[in-house]
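Chapter summary example.
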Amino acid sequence: MSPSADLTVDPSNEDARHGWDGDDGAYWAEHEDYFDRSLARYRDAYFAAAAISSNDRVLDVGCGTGSTTREAARRAVGGTALGVDLSSRMLERARDRARVEELTNVGFVQADAQIHPFDPASFDLVISRTGTMFFGDPVAAFSNLHTALRPGGRMTLLTWQPMAENEWFVAFRTALADGRELPSPPADAPGPFSLSDPARVRRILDASGFVDVALDAVAHPMEHGRTVDEALANVRGMGYAQGLLQSLDAAGRARALDALRASHEAHDTGAGVCYGSATWIISASRP
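The structure predicted for these 287 residues follows.
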């Protein structure tokens, strides 16, 4: 799938555009139930921290297929919820779901939140569930979100703790490495763990104008499939898994997939294939 030609992004987010508005975004749209279910155990703690009021104007960054945006709209019954994402396919799903649910106070825009010209002070709350770790220039991105918030507005994010604390990622990576020594992802590069270091998070948000920055640790098991076969299909189709598999020869791919299946079998609880995961709930505000 090719990215939308009319989507403008900051040059530092060009790779993200090709992925999220390309094959990665199409895969996430097709498997929206899996991705939403994998994070379901974080829902209550996350929305408790967001504390959405009935009249809030909420901006959901990296909203994907829009489950968090729609939940925000249901809570902000007298306000609004706007979801922003790079993926045209995921936003298409989000709009379809909102129509089915007959939500009239929700909208979705395909845009790069790092540079999108939001009206200044037009939101009471910015939220993002694992959607803010991929900015090419995080200070520029969070500065833009700071401008979009009204004075006194708040921001609540869900991000991953360091890779070593996330069993799911380590286990999948180890299985798919097929014995290779893989380099650790750079801590300051866009990726799932770019906001995992509390000191770095504070530096970025301080430089972006936010105050009252707090990080609360929350850990839950993550379900990656209801059965071993479903988990194997879900995980092997993700972009990073495909990248690791494609760099192996046929024999190596077979070994890696056998190792991944064995890992899933070891984590099959009988009520889903579950791995340990750990997140930060990050809170901050605009003075």
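To summarize the output: The two ends are 42 Å apart (CA to CA).
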